DNA sequence: AGTTTCTATCTGAAAAAGAGATACTTTAAT
DNA sequence: ATTAAAGTATCTCTTTTTCAGATAGAAACT
């Protein structure tokens, strides 16, 4: 098993082209480098350098092993960097629950930035259905969550409003409803309605959104979007979820003759209060709060 | 900078759940493990284990660092494995030139097997045009090559026939030639011919293949296949290159009224004789020889 | 309560690492 | 051709590190 010092000597010698120079760089005697390299050669059984000339030059085998040596030193650096990040109080892992409706490009972009800023923090992402985030926070399963505004929150965590999202009725461009310039309740009632259903079965709020007697339920709003694109029924979805389909024309927004503003729903970020927040959680909270939501 | 022994002690302790057991596993005294872990904790500044109970249990930070420790040991293993493979005489790298006409699924499959058999051998793949492989072998640029049979080889390397490939005239299903039940020379001469051109410009053999006065040249036969699919001209190509397009019907084979068999061309594998072959080269040579070519 | 199994810590011995000196070789310059 | 500079291998001796063994105390199990 190669020793760390031997590897360092090997690398320094290969890079500087001489054992003496390597010794100077490592602040060690030349003999130390010479011994280290020789021991490495003995242990591996591979001739690393060609010593026929004054300056030792890497053999082909040495060149191959040098790459592996670099790989080892890189993982060593990762180790020490991770240790340093832990010393700075950074969380080793963080669980973030983002309601499926809200898993949208700016959030994804924020996560990319997060990865760059905290490369050593492991992030677990949950994408629960509607209204499941509060329970995940309360139970401690998630450390932070992004969710649509609730009427009443369970005890045990903080939350903060950060924007708004608009719920709009949409259907395929080929759907019969698409040909109407305006739709009212009875128009909608004549066609199948697709409804995002919470995993949490006891949760049966949002009755106000159920208009049609012919309903289907789906766990994920993205599944619903797929069905809509296939021309199946209509649904009241958040703009952000179907933004792409709306811009490319696959889906269209239905113009309503009723309740113009009631569908504007707040977006909250919530976090547990029991567990102390580290730098990563603070960063996330701060940047989530600064996000601009497209319909907000 | 963490020491290899310290990391081993850390890992063994984490896995076995006790410093004493780790000591037994590593054939060291318990005190050695205890010291190693403690020193690692001091150097990193991170508490790795919770010692409040009898058996030390990993802290959250310890768990995070354990993963990095595993990564280090894995790269150490890679180092020693590569050293072992070099001791067995395996080449550290190998250059294989495969003429573009012959870069076909069974060869790709063979390379996949090669990668599994010799994970530490770096493979450089060249995909030269027609008739360029012998020069690559002669000059030492490539160690081994797969090529179409040549009339006369330069000195300095061995070769062995391993199969045959059929050259067929093809065109798009929408091309005027496609409507003819049989084609003769004068039919072909009326349309543009696409010809694979060697990188090696002085090489101007295969005049026998040039039939039409209206020719275009392309370096890669795959580029030619693309042009053919777009309905541009016809070409005499190896079946293996356009097999996919032939089966899905995009391209069709033209039935000729002349020289039925002259287009059957041998496939050779060649290798340099100056450089001693290692196990990897031997393996490749043996398995290339065993390949079944679809038109062979 | 007694026994077992564990950890931390101390001590001394053994091993390893490393500095310094020396002899010899190669490269470059005079 | 000779000299000077820079490099390597190897030897010796010192310093440092590593480690086993012993011991005391804590935690779990019977």
UniProtKB/TrEMBL annotation, chains A, B:
Cited Gene3D superfamilies: 3.40.190.290, Winged helix-like DNA-binding domain superfamily/Winged helix DNA-binding domain
CDD domains the UniProt entry points to: PBP2_LTTR_substrate (cd05466)
UniProt keyword annotations, A-Z: DNA-binding, Transcription, Transcription regulation
SUPFAM superfamilies tied to this protein: Periplasmic binding protein-like II (SSF53850), Winged helix' DNA-binding domain (SSF46785)
Protein known as: LysR family transcriptional regulator
Family under the similarity heading: Belongs to the LysR transcriptional regulatory family.
A Pfam family it matches: LysR_substrate
Top-rank taxon: Bacteria
HTH lysR-type domain boundaries: 2-59
Keyword DNA-binding: yes
GO terms, molecular function: DNA-binding transcription factor activity; transcription cis-regulatory region binding
Alphabetical list of InterPro entries matching this protein: LysR_HTH_N, LysR_subst-bd, WH-like_DNA-bd_sf, WH_DNA-bd_sf
The UniProt record lists the keyword ATP-binding: no
């Amino acid at each position: 098993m190669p020793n760390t010092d031997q590897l360092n000597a090997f690398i320094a010698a290969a890079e500087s082209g001489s054992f003496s120079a390597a010794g100077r760089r490592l602040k060690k005697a030349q003999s130390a480098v010479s011994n280290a390299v020789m021991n490495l050669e003995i242990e591996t059984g591979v001739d690393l350098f060609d010593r026929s000339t004054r300056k030792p030059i890497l053999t082909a085998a040495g060149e191959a092993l040098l790459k592996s040596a670099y790989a080892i030193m890189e993982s060593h650096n990762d180790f020490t960097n991770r240790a340093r990040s832990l010393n700075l109080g950074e969380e080793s892992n963080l669980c973030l629950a983002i309601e499926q409706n809200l898993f949208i490009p700016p959030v994804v972009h924020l996560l990319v930035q997060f990865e760059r800023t905290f490369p050593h923090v492991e992030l677990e992402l949950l994408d629960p259905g509607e209204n499941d985030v509060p329970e995940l926070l309360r139970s401690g399963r998630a450390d932070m969550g992004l969710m649509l505004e609730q009427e009443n929150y369970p005890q045990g965590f903080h939350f903060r409003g950060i924007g708004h999202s608009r719920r709009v009725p949409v259907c395929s461009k080929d759907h019969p409803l698409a040909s109407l310039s305006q739709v009212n309740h009875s128009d909608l009632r004549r066609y199948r309605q697709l409804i995002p259903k919470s995993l949490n079965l006891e949760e049966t709020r949002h009755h106000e959104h159920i208009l049609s007697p012919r309903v289907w339920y789906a766990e994920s709003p993205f599944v619903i979007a797929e069905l809509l694109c296939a021309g199946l029924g209509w649904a009241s979805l958040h703009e952000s979820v179907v933004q792409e389909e709306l811009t490319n024309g696959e889906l269209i927004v239905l113009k309503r003759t009723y309740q113009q503003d009631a569908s504007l729903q707040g977006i909250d970020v919530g976090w547990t209060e029991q567990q102390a927040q580290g730098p990563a959680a603070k960063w996330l909270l701060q940047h989530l709060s600064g996000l601009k939501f497209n319909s907000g």
